[in-house]
Amino acid sequence: MRSSHTCEVRILQRRGWRGKGMHREVVMSNRGIQFLNHWATEHVSAMPYPEHLAEARRLAKECIADAQKQSISKKELEEGLLKDLVSELKDRLDTRADEEVKRMAKRL
Questions:
Q1: pTM, rounded to two decimals
Q2: Which one, 64, 68, 101, 107, has least CB within 10 Å?
Q3: Which residues contact 53 (CB under 8 A, 6 or more apart)?
């Protein structure tokens, strides 16, 4: 069974105190995070703070549906996050709102 990740395995030579040694490094490119970052730039916009949790839940459902169309699972979307998808999207909504407040404050 193939993993849904794109993996690159590199063999590196590393010098230790005894000379040369071999070290194996796995570099993962998480397409779920890449998808989420791209998707969020198009779908997450500034809105009033009290609406953020409900909007994050709605966006999470929409994001999962769009990701599944590209064969990306919810698990893969959340894999690189330190929290669940709803919390991540709520944080992004908060950030967008904070940026908008700062932008508007500069205009005063």
A1: 0.71
A2: 107
A3: 86, 90
By C-alpha distance, which of 46, 44, 58, 52 is closest to 90? Answer: 52
Please report, in tens digits, the pLDDT of each residue of the chain (108 residues total).
Answer: 334 444 443 444 444 444 444 444 333 348 899 999 999 999 999 999 999 999 999 999 999 999 999 999 999 888 878 899 999 999 999 999 999 999 999 988
Where are the domains positioned within the chain? 30-107
**From residue 16, how far is each of 11, 12, 21 by CA, in Å?**
15, 12, 7
- Residue 15 burial (C-beta neighbours within 10 Å; 0-12, 13-18, 19+): exposed
Spatial separation of the C-alpha atoms in residues 61 and 66, rounded to whole Å: 9
